[in-house]
Specification:
The chain is an alpha/beta fold. The protein folds into three domains: about 15-85 and about 355-415, no CATH class; about 95-120 and about 240-355, 3-Layer(aba) Sandwich (Rossmann fold); about 125-235, 3-Layer(aba) Sandwich (Calcium-transporting ATPase, cytoplasmic domain N), CATH 3.40.1110.10. About 55% of the residues lie in helices and about 15% in strands. Strands 1-13-12-11-2-9-10 form a seven-stranded mixed sheet, with helices on both faces. It has a six-stranded antiparallel sheet with strand order 3-8-7-6-5-4. The longest helix is centred in the C-terminal third of the chain and has 37 residues, at about 350-385.
Protein backbone atom coordinates (compact mmCIF):
# COMPACT_ATOMS: atom_id res chain seq x y z
CA UNK A 1 0.00 0.00 0.00
CA UNK A 2 0.98 3.66 -0.32
CA UNK A 3 1.06 3.97 3.49
CA UNK A 4 3.45 1.03 3.87
CA UNK A 5 5.74 2.52 1.23
CA UNK A 6 5.73 5.84 3.08
CA UNK A 7 6.63 4.12 6.37
CA UNK A 8 9.42 2.20 4.63
CA UNK A 9 10.74 5.38 3.05
CA UNK A 10 10.84 7.19 6.40
CA UNK A 11 12.76 4.28 7.97
CA UNK A 12 15.27 4.27 5.11
CA UNK A 13 15.62 8.07 5.27
CA UNK A 14 16.89 7.84 8.84
CA UNK A 15 19.69 5.51 7.65
CA UNK A 16 20.85 7.64 4.72
CA UNK A 17 23.50 10.03 5.97
CA UNK A 18 24.43 13.38 4.50
CA UNK A 19 27.98 14.20 3.39
CA UNK A 20 28.48 16.24 6.56
CA UNK A 21 27.39 13.31 8.75
CA UNK A 22 29.73 10.95 6.92
CA UNK A 23 32.62 13.40 7.36
CA UNK A 24 31.95 13.77 11.10
CA UNK A 25 31.79 9.97 11.50
CA UNK A 26 35.07 9.56 9.63
CA UNK A 27 36.67 12.36 11.65
CA UNK A 28 35.55 10.75 14.93
CA UNK A 29 37.26 7.46 13.99
CA UNK A 30 40.63 9.23 13.98
CA UNK A 31 39.83 11.83 16.63
CA UNK A 32 38.98 9.39 19.44
CA UNK A 33 42.21 7.32 19.40
CA UNK A 34 44.22 10.54 18.98
CA UNK A 35 42.66 12.02 22.13
CA UNK A 36 43.27 8.83 24.11
CA UNK A 37 46.88 8.89 22.97
CA UNK A 38 47.20 12.56 23.99
CA UNK A 39 45.80 11.75 27.44
CA UNK A 40 48.41 9.01 27.93
CA UNK A 41 51.18 11.36 26.81
CA UNK A 42 49.84 14.07 29.13
CA UNK A 43 50.15 11.68 32.07
CA UNK A 44 53.32 9.74 31.20
CA UNK A 45 55.78 12.43 30.07
CA UNK A 46 55.37 14.94 32.94
CA UNK A 47 55.27 12.10 35.50
CA UNK A 48 58.01 9.70 34.35
CA UNK A 49 60.22 11.97 32.23
CA UNK A 50 59.98 15.36 33.92
CA UNK A 51 59.36 14.05 37.43
CA UNK A 52 56.21 16.01 38.24
CA UNK A 53 53.67 14.66 40.78
CA UNK A 54 51.75 11.81 39.19
CA UNK A 55 48.41 12.63 40.83
CA UNK A 56 48.33 16.16 39.34
CA UNK A 57 48.94 14.99 35.78
CA UNK A 58 46.71 11.95 36.13
CA UNK A 59 43.87 14.30 37.10
CA UNK A 60 44.63 16.60 34.16
CA UNK A 61 44.69 13.62 31.79
CA UNK A 62 41.33 12.49 33.18
CA UNK A 63 39.82 15.97 32.68
CA UNK A 64 41.27 15.99 29.15
CA UNK A 65 39.56 12.69 28.35
CA UNK A 66 36.20 14.01 29.57
CA UNK A 67 36.30 17.33 27.69
CA UNK A 68 37.61 15.65 24.54
CA UNK A 69 34.76 13.13 24.38
CA UNK A 70 33.34 13.57 20.83
CA UNK A 71 29.70 13.01 21.82
CA UNK A 72 28.54 16.56 21.10
CA UNK A 73 30.41 16.66 17.79
CA UNK A 74 29.13 13.25 16.77
CA UNK A 75 25.46 14.11 17.35
CA UNK A 76 25.65 17.72 16.14
CA UNK A 77 24.66 16.83 12.55
CA UNK A 78 22.39 13.73 12.91
CA UNK A 79 20.10 15.38 15.47
CA UNK A 80 19.69 18.43 13.23
CA UNK A 81 18.93 16.29 10.18
CA UNK A 82 16.37 14.11 11.97
CA UNK A 83 14.67 17.22 13.37
CA UNK A 84 14.47 18.73 9.88
CA UNK A 85 13.10 15.49 8.37
CA UNK A 86 10.47 15.42 11.12
CA UNK A 87 9.47 19.01 10.42
CA UNK A 88 9.18 18.27 6.70
CA UNK A 89 7.00 15.21 7.36
CA UNK A 90 4.63 17.31 9.45
CA UNK A 91 4.19 19.55 6.40
CA UNK A 92 3.37 16.63 4.12
CA UNK A 93 6.87 16.34 2.65
CA UNK A 94 8.71 13.02 2.66
CA UNK A 95 12.48 13.32 2.17
CA UNK A 96 14.24 10.04 1.43
CA UNK A 97 17.43 10.95 3.23
CA UNK A 98 19.42 13.73 4.88
CA UNK A 99 21.73 13.81 1.85
CA UNK A 100 18.91 15.25 -0.30
CA UNK A 101 18.11 17.91 2.28
CA UNK A 102 21.78 18.90 2.33
CA UNK A 103 21.95 18.86 -1.49
CA UNK A 104 19.02 21.30 -1.69
CA UNK A 105 21.23 23.85 0.02
CA UNK A 106 23.60 23.63 -2.97
CA UNK A 107 20.93 23.85 -5.69
CA UNK A 108 21.53 26.73 -8.10
CA UNK A 109 18.79 25.97 -10.64
CA UNK A 110 15.35 24.34 -10.60
CA UNK A 111 13.65 22.82 -13.64
CA UNK A 112 9.84 22.73 -13.45
CA UNK A 113 7.53 20.56 -15.47
CA UNK A 114 4.53 22.56 -16.75
CA UNK A 115 1.33 20.54 -16.56
CA UNK A 116 0.34 19.69 -13.00
CA UNK A 117 3.33 21.51 -11.52
CA UNK A 118 3.23 25.17 -12.55
CA UNK A 119 -0.37 24.72 -13.66
CA UNK A 120 -3.21 23.02 -11.80
CA UNK A 121 -3.17 20.15 -14.26
CA UNK A 122 -6.94 20.29 -14.63
CA UNK A 123 -7.34 20.77 -18.35
CA UNK A 124 -10.73 21.72 -19.73
CA UNK A 125 -11.89 21.71 -23.34
CA UNK A 126 -12.54 25.33 -24.37
CA UNK A 127 -12.92 25.14 -28.16
CA UNK A 128 -13.79 22.51 -30.78
CA UNK A 129 -13.43 23.35 -34.48
CA UNK A 130 -14.36 20.94 -37.28
CA UNK A 131 -12.87 20.94 -40.79
CA UNK A 132 -13.97 19.52 -44.13
CA UNK A 133 -17.68 19.33 -43.25
CA UNK A 134 -17.09 17.64 -39.89
CA UNK A 135 -19.21 18.96 -37.03
CA UNK A 136 -17.78 19.69 -33.58
CA UNK A 137 -19.71 16.67 -32.25
CA UNK A 138 -18.06 14.39 -34.83
CA UNK A 139 -14.63 15.79 -33.98
CA UNK A 140 -15.24 15.23 -30.26
CA UNK A 141 -16.58 11.72 -30.86
CA UNK A 142 -13.50 10.66 -32.85
CA UNK A 143 -11.11 12.34 -30.40
CA UNK A 144 -12.79 10.78 -27.35
CA UNK A 145 -12.73 7.35 -28.97
CA UNK A 146 -9.00 7.66 -29.68
CA UNK A 147 -8.25 9.04 -26.20
CA UNK A 148 -10.34 6.41 -24.38
CA UNK A 149 -7.28 4.18 -23.81
CA UNK A 150 -4.89 6.95 -22.78
CA UNK A 151 -4.07 8.06 -19.22
CA UNK A 152 -2.78 11.48 -20.29
CA UNK A 153 -4.41 14.58 -18.66
CA UNK A 154 -5.50 15.73 -22.14
CA UNK A 155 -7.32 12.43 -22.65
CA UNK A 156 -9.16 12.81 -19.34
CA UNK A 157 -10.30 16.33 -20.29
CA UNK A 158 -11.53 15.21 -23.72
CA UNK A 159 -13.40 12.24 -22.24
CA UNK A 160 -14.99 14.45 -19.59
CA UNK A 161 -16.23 16.85 -22.28
CA UNK A 162 -17.58 13.99 -24.40
CA UNK A 163 -19.48 12.47 -21.47
CA UNK A 164 -20.98 15.84 -20.55
CA UNK A 165 -22.40 16.05 -24.08
CA UNK A 166 -23.49 12.39 -24.10
CA UNK A 167 -21.23 11.70 -27.08
CA UNK A 168 -21.15 8.06 -28.16
CA UNK A 169 -17.69 6.47 -28.26
CA UNK A 170 -16.68 4.44 -31.30
CA UNK A 171 -15.05 1.01 -31.18
CA UNK A 172 -11.30 1.31 -31.87
CA UNK A 173 -8.53 -1.15 -32.73
CA UNK A 174 -4.78 -0.99 -33.29
CA UNK A 175 -4.30 1.66 -30.60
CA UNK A 176 -0.74 3.01 -30.47
CA UNK A 177 0.70 5.79 -28.33
CA UNK A 178 3.39 7.86 -30.05
CA UNK A 179 5.64 9.04 -27.20
CA UNK A 180 5.60 12.80 -26.75
CA UNK A 181 3.53 13.39 -29.90
CA UNK A 182 0.10 11.77 -29.77
CA UNK A 183 -1.63 8.55 -30.70
CA UNK A 184 -3.24 6.62 -33.53
CA UNK A 185 -5.98 3.99 -33.82
CA UNK A 186 -8.38 2.50 -36.30
CA UNK A 187 -12.12 3.12 -36.37
CA UNK A 188 -14.04 0.87 -38.77
CA UNK A 189 -10.76 0.03 -40.50
CA UNK A 190 -9.81 3.67 -41.03
CA UNK A 191 -6.68 5.14 -39.37
CA UNK A 192 -7.05 8.30 -37.30
CA UNK A 193 -4.52 10.44 -35.46
CA UNK A 194 -4.76 12.77 -32.46
CA UNK A 195 -1.87 14.78 -31.11
CA UNK A 196 0.39 17.81 -31.19
CA UNK A 197 1.28 19.75 -34.31
CA UNK A 198 4.69 18.05 -34.42
CA UNK A 199 2.98 14.71 -35.09
CA UNK A 200 1.41 16.08 -38.24
CA UNK A 201 4.67 17.65 -39.35
CA UNK A 202 5.99 14.09 -39.40
CA UNK A 203 2.97 13.09 -41.52
CA UNK A 204 3.72 15.98 -43.94
CA UNK A 205 0.20 17.31 -43.35
CA UNK A 206 -0.69 21.00 -43.46
CA UNK A 207 -1.44 22.45 -40.03
CA UNK A 208 -4.68 24.52 -39.90
CA UNK A 209 -4.31 28.16 -38.87
CA UNK A 210 -6.75 27.62 -35.99
CA UNK A 211 -4.10 25.52 -34.25
CA UNK A 212 -1.68 28.46 -34.18
CA UNK A 213 -4.39 30.86 -33.02
CA UNK A 214 -5.21 28.73 -29.99
CA UNK A 215 -1.52 28.31 -29.17
CA UNK A 216 -1.03 32.09 -29.25
CA UNK A 217 -3.77 32.30 -26.61
CA UNK A 218 -1.71 30.00 -24.38
CA UNK A 219 -3.98 27.02 -24.95
CA UNK A 220 -2.94 23.44 -25.54
CA UNK A 221 -4.31 22.13 -28.84
CA UNK A 222 -4.72 18.65 -30.25
CA UNK A 223 -5.13 18.06 -33.94
CA UNK A 224 -7.46 15.31 -35.23
CA UNK A 225 -7.04 13.82 -38.70
CA UNK A 226 -7.14 10.69 -40.80
CA UNK A 227 -4.33 9.72 -43.17
CA UNK A 228 -5.36 12.24 -45.81
CA UNK A 229 -6.88 15.35 -44.29
CA UNK A 230 -7.61 17.36 -41.18
CA UNK A 231 -10.79 16.61 -39.26
CA UNK A 232 -10.64 19.18 -36.48
CA UNK A 233 -8.88 20.90 -33.61
CA UNK A 234 -9.67 20.74 -29.89
CA UNK A 235 -8.27 23.47 -27.64
CA UNK A 236 -7.78 23.01 -23.90
CA UNK A 237 -7.03 25.53 -21.19
CA UNK A 238 -5.17 25.04 -17.92
CA UNK A 239 -5.03 27.42 -14.97
CA UNK A 240 -1.72 28.67 -13.58
CA UNK A 241 -1.29 27.81 -9.91
CA UNK A 242 -2.08 30.86 -7.80
CA UNK A 243 1.22 30.78 -5.93
CA UNK A 244 3.45 30.01 -8.93
CA UNK A 245 4.56 33.62 -9.71
CA UNK A 246 5.26 34.30 -6.02
CA UNK A 247 7.28 31.10 -5.57
CA UNK A 248 9.35 31.83 -8.68
CA UNK A 249 9.96 35.37 -7.39
CA UNK A 250 11.14 34.01 -4.02
CA UNK A 251 13.51 31.57 -5.73
CA UNK A 252 15.03 34.40 -7.75
CA UNK A 253 15.70 36.29 -4.51
CA UNK A 254 17.64 33.23 -3.38
CA UNK A 255 19.61 33.51 -6.66
CA UNK A 256 18.20 30.25 -7.96
CA UNK A 257 17.57 30.07 -11.70
CA UNK A 258 14.17 28.75 -12.77
CA UNK A 259 13.48 26.99 -16.06
CA UNK A 260 10.39 25.25 -17.42
CA UNK A 261 10.52 22.04 -19.44
CA UNK A 262 7.43 20.83 -21.24
CA UNK A 263 6.21 18.66 -24.05
CA UNK A 264 3.76 21.39 -25.01
CA UNK A 265 4.31 23.74 -27.97
CA UNK A 266 6.55 26.80 -27.93
CA UNK A 267 3.77 29.41 -27.96
CA UNK A 268 2.01 27.90 -24.94
CA UNK A 269 5.32 27.59 -23.08
CA UNK A 270 6.30 31.17 -23.90
CA UNK A 271 2.92 32.52 -22.76
CA UNK A 272 3.04 30.64 -19.45
CA UNK A 273 6.69 31.51 -18.77
CA UNK A 274 5.85 35.19 -19.24
CA UNK A 275 2.93 35.02 -16.80
CA UNK A 276 4.94 33.30 -14.09
CA UNK A 277 8.30 35.00 -14.57
CA UNK A 278 10.31 31.87 -15.40
CA UNK A 279 13.88 32.64 -16.52
CA UNK A 280 13.79 30.28 -19.52
CA UNK A 281 11.65 27.58 -21.09
CA UNK A 282 12.16 24.49 -23.24
CA UNK A 283 9.18 23.32 -25.31
CA UNK A 284 8.11 20.31 -27.39
CA UNK A 285 10.32 17.96 -25.40
CA UNK A 286 10.15 14.19 -25.34
CA UNK A 287 11.08 12.42 -22.05
CA UNK A 288 14.65 11.90 -23.32
CA UNK A 289 14.89 15.58 -24.24
CA UNK A 290 13.94 16.56 -20.69
CA UNK A 291 16.80 14.41 -19.42
CA UNK A 292 19.22 16.23 -21.74
CA UNK A 293 18.00 19.63 -20.52
CA UNK A 294 18.50 18.63 -16.86
CA UNK A 295 21.97 17.27 -17.65
CA UNK A 296 22.85 20.49 -19.47
CA UNK A 297 21.68 22.56 -16.48
CA UNK A 298 23.75 20.35 -14.17
CA UNK A 299 26.80 21.02 -16.32
CA UNK A 300 26.21 24.77 -16.05
CA UNK A 301 25.15 25.13 -12.42
CA UNK A 302 26.53 22.05 -10.65
CA UNK A 303 23.46 21.17 -8.59
CA UNK A 304 19.96 21.12 -10.11
CA UNK A 305 16.53 20.16 -8.74
CA UNK A 306 13.75 18.83 -10.95
CA UNK A 307 10.09 19.26 -9.99
CA UNK A 308 7.56 17.06 -11.78
CA UNK A 309 4.70 14.62 -11.35
CA UNK A 310 6.96 11.66 -10.57
CA UNK A 311 5.55 9.43 -13.32
CA UNK A 312 5.80 11.14 -16.71
CA UNK A 313 8.98 12.94 -15.63
CA UNK A 314 10.64 9.93 -14.01
CA UNK A 315 13.78 9.94 -16.24
CA UNK A 316 14.44 13.65 -15.62
CA UNK A 317 13.77 13.25 -11.89
CA UNK A 318 16.29 10.42 -11.80
CA UNK A 319 19.18 12.40 -13.34
CA UNK A 320 18.60 15.58 -11.32
CA UNK A 321 20.66 16.24 -8.19
CA UNK A 322 17.36 16.28 -6.31
CA UNK A 323 14.12 14.94 -7.82
CA UNK A 324 10.93 16.37 -6.32
CA UNK A 325 7.54 14.83 -7.14
CA UNK A 326 4.33 16.78 -6.51
CA UNK A 327 0.89 15.53 -5.52
CA UNK A 328 1.94 11.96 -4.74
CA UNK A 329 -0.65 11.07 -2.07
CA UNK A 330 -2.22 8.50 -4.36
CA UNK A 331 0.81 7.46 -6.39
CA UNK A 332 3.15 4.80 -5.05
CA UNK A 333 5.12 5.05 -8.32
CA UNK A 334 5.90 8.69 -7.59
CA UNK A 335 7.01 7.84 -4.05
CA UNK A 336 9.44 5.26 -5.45
CA UNK A 337 10.79 7.60 -8.16
CA UNK A 338 11.45 10.87 -6.37
CA UNK A 339 14.10 11.83 -3.81
CA UNK A 340 11.52 14.09 -2.18
CA UNK A 341 7.76 13.52 -2.38
CA UNK A 342 5.21 16.27 -1.78
CA UNK A 343 2.00 14.62 -0.65
CA UNK A 344 -0.21 17.45 -1.89
CA UNK A 345 -0.39 19.77 -4.91
CA UNK A 346 1.02 22.75 -3.04
CA UNK A 347 3.78 24.55 -4.92
CA UNK A 348 4.61 26.66 -1.85
CA UNK A 349 6.19 23.54 -0.34
CA UNK A 350 9.14 24.15 -2.70
CA UNK A 351 9.71 27.51 -1.03
CA UNK A 352 9.44 25.86 2.40
CA UNK A 353 11.91 23.13 1.38
CA UNK A 354 14.53 25.65 0.30
CA UNK A 355 14.08 27.60 3.55
CA UNK A 356 14.25 24.43 5.67
CA UNK A 357 17.38 23.23 3.88
CA UNK A 358 19.21 26.51 4.41
CA UNK A 359 18.15 26.76 8.05
CA UNK A 360 19.18 23.15 8.68
CA UNK A 361 22.67 23.71 7.31
CA UNK A 362 23.00 26.88 9.40
CA UNK A 363 22.11 24.91 12.53
CA UNK A 364 24.57 22.15 11.57
CA UNK A 365 27.35 24.73 11.16
CA UNK A 366 26.42 26.30 14.51
CA UNK A 367 26.53 22.93 16.27
CA UNK A 368 29.81 21.84 14.70
CA UNK A 369 31.46 25.23 15.29
CA UNK A 370 30.29 25.36 18.92
CA UNK A 371 31.48 21.80 19.56
CA UNK A 372 34.93 22.44 18.08
CA UNK A 373 35.28 25.79 19.88
CA UNK A 374 34.32 24.44 23.32
CA UNK A 375 36.28 21.20 22.94
CA UNK A 376 39.36 23.02 21.70
CA UNK A 377 39.24 25.67 24.42
CA UNK A 378 38.61 23.19 27.22
CA UNK A 379 41.40 20.92 25.96
CA UNK A 380 43.91 23.76 26.37
CA UNK A 381 42.46 24.67 29.78
CA UNK A 382 42.65 21.02 30.88
CA UNK A 383 46.33 20.78 29.92
CA UNK A 384 47.03 23.97 31.87
CA UNK A 385 45.10 22.65 34.88
CA UNK A 386 42.66 25.59 34.85
CA UNK A 387 39.43 23.55 34.98
CA UNK A 388 38.30 20.74 37.25
CA UNK A 389 36.47 17.52 36.45
CA UNK A 390 33.03 18.86 37.41
CA UNK A 391 33.30 21.80 35.01
CA UNK A 392 34.53 19.43 32.32
CA UNK A 393 31.46 17.22 32.76
CA UNK A 394 28.88 19.98 33.29
CA UNK A 395 29.99 22.24 30.42
CA UNK A 396 32.54 20.51 28.22
CA UNK A 397 30.67 17.22 27.83
CA UNK A 398 27.03 16.82 28.97
CA UNK A 399 26.26 20.54 28.91
CA UNK A 400 27.59 20.91 25.38
CA UNK A 401 25.72 17.82 24.19
CA UNK A 402 22.47 19.17 25.64
CA UNK A 403 23.06 22.57 24.00
CA UNK A 404 23.63 20.92 20.61
CA UNK A 405 20.45 18.84 20.94
CA UNK A 406 18.28 21.80 21.99
CA UNK A 407 19.63 23.93 19.14
CA UNK A 408 18.89 21.16 16.63
CA UNK A 409 15.38 20.59 17.96
CA UNK A 410 14.45 24.14 16.96
CA UNK A 411 14.17 22.74 13.44
CA UNK A 412 11.09 20.73 14.42
CA UNK A 413 9.28 24.06 14.87
CA UNK A 414 10.10 25.50 11.45
CA UNK A 415 6.85 26.75 9.96
CA UNK A 416 5.79 27.52 6.43
CA UNK A 417 5.58 31.26 5.85
CA UNK A 418 2.49 32.37 3.92
Amino acid sequence: TVLSKIVKMVEEAEKKKSKTEKFIDKFARYYTPAVIGLAFVTFLIPTFVLGYPWDVWFYRALVLLVVSCPCALAISTPVAMVSALTSAARHGILIKGASYLEELNRVKAIAFDKTGTLTKGKLEVTDIVGFNSHSSEEVLSIAASLESRSEHPIAKAVLKKARSKNIQFKEISGFRAITGRGLEAQINGRTYYAGAGSLFDDLSMEIPKELSQFEMQGKTSIFISDKNRAIGVIALGDMVRDKAPLIVSHLKKLRIRTEMITGDNKRVAESLAGKIGIDAYHAQLLPDDKVKVVEELTGRFGSVAMVGDGVNDAPALAVASVGIAMGTIGSDVAIETADIALMHDDLSKIDYLMFLSRKTMRVVKQNVSLSILIKGSFTVLALLGLINLWVAVAIGDMGLSLAVILNAMRLTKVKQVN
